[in-house]
Amino acid sequence: MSSVLSPTAPPGAAPEPTRPIWSLTPLLRRLHFYAGLLVAPFLIVAAVSGLAYSVAPQIDDILYSDVLYSRTDTGPQRTLAEQVTAARTAVPDGTLTGVLPADGDKATRVVFARPGLGADYRRTVYVDPHTADVQGQLTTWFGSTPAVTWLDGLHRHLQLGEPGRLYSELAASWLWLIALGGLILWWGRLRGRRRLRALLTPEKGIRGVRRTRSWHAAIGVWTLLGALLLSATGLTWSTYAGDNFNTALTALRAKAVPLDTTLPGSTGAPGMGGGHEGHGVSAAGADRAPTDPATFDRVLLAARTAGLTGPLEIGVAEEPGSAWTAAQVDNVWPVRRDQIAADPTTGAVTARASFADRPFLARLTTLGVQAHMGVLFGPANQIFLALTALGILTMIVLGYRMWWQRRPTRADRRSRLGAPPVRGGWRGLPLWALIPGPLVVVAVGWAIPLLGLSLAAFLVLDLVIGTARRSRRPASAT
């Protein structure tokens, strides 16, 4: 039988401490081995591109500082009407969709929808708030500059569009399982009173594969929190797992209620707007009537009077007879994400949506996204993500090194890829552990489809290979 849980001790030898006969360790070890081996290339791409994305603010400062920041820092600021009028001269064929007033030393961003731009792309004009001079313009995606947009596309879908998103979802789907499985395996190996110390630091005085494994495990423990955070937050906006997550939020009534942009006395259909998740104004507005620039000043005054401090995003009404919106877009802790709807004619506030009133899961999701993007805690967040990415890359390199160190020699060619942990560990599990197993796999497979499909493929392939090898043994024996 191929599923030997532990070797038989020689006669007279002192009994070694053994795990229970129903231990999950053999099955977990085999899964960790193959998952790490096969998913590692996807994790490498995600970690390298994520590492580059973690310094996105610094990249913007290097490439676009002459556009993003005000060139003058003295004198009173011009009205938004003046700044918008100047921006319109730079994009005469664009449809004005919103404005992000200058905050601190930043330039004012005036956003236009323009014919020929792709979905969610806008033409953003940067205006000096003190002089109303146009400093430049960029094609932006949800507010991101071209360089950051490219890095984001590389990280999300390898610049391959929607089909490429499968790679990042597959990596995020397996990352948490590989990380937790590795922790369980390493904890099971440790003995003695210094177990916690051995868990966090590499073992000294050892060589070869044991030394590599010790470093692999210690770095994995230190990287665990970051890996779990990236896996969970990455899945929330993935293609398939993200859809299931949104379905669950809807069923639990845990989604944020959109801001009501219906004006009092309006005869039109109720309007809901103000998604405003800090990516810049994105509503198309292709058929909007000409916008009076002075309206931006009225809505800005209404927002400040209503207590909306910090950086703001003012959105033009998406339909005639609807309210304009103003939303806080502060993504740094403690985040400020309140929104108001205002009558564009009078500036009266018609509705408000406070971040604190959102359901807990909705708030947690927003914070998780900002943490994943490296903005929630400022530079500390960036450093944390960079160290996590470097830790994941180091673990993968050490994992492959272990695989290479255990490669077959000329005298032992029984396994061309190196000897994996023995198969069949599940046969040693008791019935009470086997019965819920398929139910758990099905539940996880539904919630995280790419994990379920790839896990099923792994189990089927492993079963086929094992069956084929067993069928060849009698023939080779004769």
Distance between the termini: 19 Å
Computed Rg? 28 Å
Which structural class should the secondary elements be placed in?
Answer: alpha+beta
H/E order of the elements?
A: HHHEEEEHHHHHEEHEEEEHHHHH
Task: Count every beta strand, where a strand is a DSSP E run of 2 or more residues.
Answer: 10
Measured by DSSP, the beta-strand proportion falls in: 5-15%
- Outline type: elongated
Number of domain units: 3
User: Total helix count?
Assistant: 14
Query: How are the strands of the biggest sheet laid out side by side?
Result: 4-3-2-1-7-8-9-10
- Please estimate the helix content: 40-55%
Mean pLDDT: 85
Q: Biggest sheet, in brief?
A: 8 strands, antiparallel
Poorly predicted sequence stretches spanning 5 or more consecutive residues: 1-17, 275-280, 282-287
Explain this structure.
- It is a single chain.
- The protein is α+β, with helices and mostly antiparallel strands.
- It has three domains: 27-53 and 161-246 and 378-471, no CATH class; 62-157, SHC Adaptor Protein, CATH 3.30.505; 254-371, no CATH class.
- The protein is 49% helix and 10% strand.
- It is built from 14 helices and ten strands.
- It has helices spanning 25-53, 56-68, 80-90, 146-157, 165-189, 195-200, 208-236, 240-251, 294-305, 360-372, 379-405, 431-434, 436-447, 449-477; strands at 95-100, 108-113, 121-127, 134-141, 259-260, 272-273, 312-315, 324-328, 339-342, 349-353.
- The protein has an eight-stranded antiparallel beta sheet with strand order 4-3-2-1-7-8-9-10. Strands 5-6 form a two-stranded antiparallel ribbon.
- Strand 3 and strand 4 form a beta hairpin.
- The longest helix has 29 residues, at 25-53.
- It is elongated, with a radius of gyration of 28 Å.
